Amino acid sequence: NIVDVTHHVTPFDVHEAAVYIKDSFRYFPSRTVFACVTLPETGVKDDVVGIRTPQGHTYFSSNNGLLTHIIREAGVAEAYRVTATQVRRPVIDPTFYGRDIVMSAAAHIANGVALCEVGPAITLADLVTLPISVPAMVDGWLVGEVAILDKNFGNVWTTITQEVLSQHGIGIGTQLEIQLGDLRMTTPLLRTFGEVKLMQPLAYIASRQQLGVALNQGNFAAVHGTKRGDRIRLRKQ
């Protein structure tokens, strides 16, 4: 079975792509092989890795931080650099490492080649990871940033998790003051969109258990010009 997790990553945005595959190990069966490609540096740096997690999933990716959340949350049982000619296409196009190295290696593993045959073993220290923004209390405000945009609807998902909110006594129904870009809003933390009027803003817990901000049946990101990495601040009223 072949599953296309997404082809809608913002071009060249490795941070966004890393979030898209963050939860994959929770929802796919053991022995699933993932081919992950967001590779702005294609043809410049031949550094593709294959890792296997303790859950039995195998990931192939450029070694540019794309597997950051998998490494941090799932863990790494084995890791290799993909150099073996038998798992790469005979001719490597510098503009298409994703096809010629990443996808080719993944296909070989899916067809029974042992992971250890893709190239030399490497350590956790050899795997590139991206810096992760951690929410923090600053002058009485809980400060985080926009982690990703739910593009079809313009909803905003932040780095402030439900766990962090709970640690600060914030749950469903808590009245919040929120600042995001030019927006200043006061709203209770709600369960879902229909609890406010049409085109009204709301704060809610998104499906990834992160604080989300949205417009009911509107595009929050488009209306307010929100981008990944924007800072969000909130405090209890």
Low-confidence stretches: none
- How many DSSP-defined strands? 12
- Roughly what fraction of the amino acids lie in strands? 25-35%
The best one-word shape is elongated
Strand order of the largest sheet: 6-7-11-10-9-8-12
Helix content: 10-25%
Task: Give the C-alpha Rg.
Answer: 20 Å
**Class from helix and strand fractions:** alpha+beta
Task: Tell me the distance between the termini.
Answer: 50 Å
Mean pLDDT: 95
What secondary-structure arrangement, pairings included, does this model have?
Blueprint: H1 14-20, H2 24-27, E1 33-36, E2 48-52, E3 58-62, H3 68-73, E4 78-81, H4 97-110, E5 136-138, E6 141-150, E7 155-161, H5 162-167, E8 175-180, E9 183-190, E10 201-205, E11 210-215, H6 220-224, E12 231-236
Parallel strand pairs: 1-3, 9-10
Antiparallel strand pairs: 2-3, 2-4, 5-6, 6-7, 6-12, 7-11, 8-9, 8-12, 10-11
Describe this protein's structure:
By secondary structure, the chain is α+β, with helices and mostly antiparallel strands. It has helices at residues 14-20, 24-27, 68-73, 97-110, 162-167, 220-224; strands at residues 33-36, 48-52, 58-62, 78-81, 136-138, 141-150, 155-161, 175-180, 183-190, 201-205, 210-215, 231-236. The strands form two sheets. A seven-stranded mixed beta barrel has the order 6-7-11-10-9-8-12. A hairpin with a 4-residue loop joins strand 10 (201-205) and strand 11. The longest helix has 14 residues, at 97-110.
